[in-house]
Specification:
The protein has 219 residues and is mainly beta. It has one domain: Jelly Rolls. The chain is built from 2 helices and 14 strands. Strands 1, 3, 4, 6, 11, 13 and 14 form a 7-stranded antiparallel beta sheet that branches. The chain has a 7-stranded mixed beta sheet with strand order 2-5-12-7-8-10-9, covered by helices on one side. A hairpin with a 2-residue loop joins strand 3 and strand 4. The two termini are 37 Å apart.
Length: 219
């Protein structure tokens, strides 16, 4: 390596060390790399019919599109995430419209144009598996939480509500470790899976949503 190359290498190393010292370099665990056209390791799981998921370009970015017509199926990725190192879940999403006339706290209205949820596995004690759902609600106000209508092991948390932001791509960042403790009284060091779902099976109708890249970060 010549003198000039050595000097350039030292400058690069110095910049990296400076950024690290100031907190700009952080660990990232990517789960959904949709913008690169990848659905690697994501698996479909059907509850009632099949919501159609495909990759499409929206506003110049490749996103995962979900189209539900009276259906409920999701996309799941199993991966252990250490919440002591990367507790922040990051993603973007968009819904075209909200759902009409349904009570989301009841079984007949347990539908969401968009949701992303984290799963803490109970292992062999499957009945201990817990899930926290971040939802785009149609009627429940933003920043409210309630038990899932079908199981006490899942909690719903409305991050967006109504049509105020419908038709726009919005970004989210949540400290999952803190949310699990606050909303489920669950002191978890890791999660075991992440899933997304757009569903309209209980109250009928249709929904179209878009999901951007999903990743965990240190801050």
């Amino acid at each position: 390596m010549g003198i000039r190359q050595t000097q350039m290498w030292m400058i690069v190393v110095g910049i990296v060390m400076l950024y690290a010292a100031n907190g700009y370099v952080q660990e990232i665990q990517k789960l959904g790399d949709f913008s690169s056209g990848s659905l690697e390791k994501w698996k479909s799981k059907s509850f009632e019919g099949k919501t159609v998921y495909d990759l499409t370009v929206l506003e110049g970015v490749t996103m995962l599109r979900a189209v539900s017509n009276g259906t409920a199926s999701g996309m799941t990725l199993e991966k252990n995430i250490d919440l002591t190192k990367t507790p922040y879940l990051n993603w973007s999403w968009r819904v075209d419209h909200i759902l009409s006339s349904r009570e989301e706290t009841q079984k007949a209205g347990d539908d969401y144009p968009a949701r992303i949820y984290v799963v803490v596995s109970g292992g062999f004690a499957f009945w201990r598996t817990k899930a926290l759902n971040y939802v785009w609600a149609s009627y429940m106000p933003a920043n409210t939480t309630w038990p899932n209508a079908f199981t006490s092991n899942a909690q719903m948390l409305a991050l967006r509500s109504g049509s105020v932001d419908a038709g726009k791509i919005v970004t989210e960042k949540r400290n999952v470790r803190e949310d699990l403790k606050r909303y489920m009284d669950l002191d978890a060091d890791q999660i075991d899976a992440v899933a997304i779902m757009t569903d309209t099976d209980n109250g009928g109708g249709n929904a179209v949503a878009y999901y951007g890249d999903i990743y965990f970060s240190a801050q």
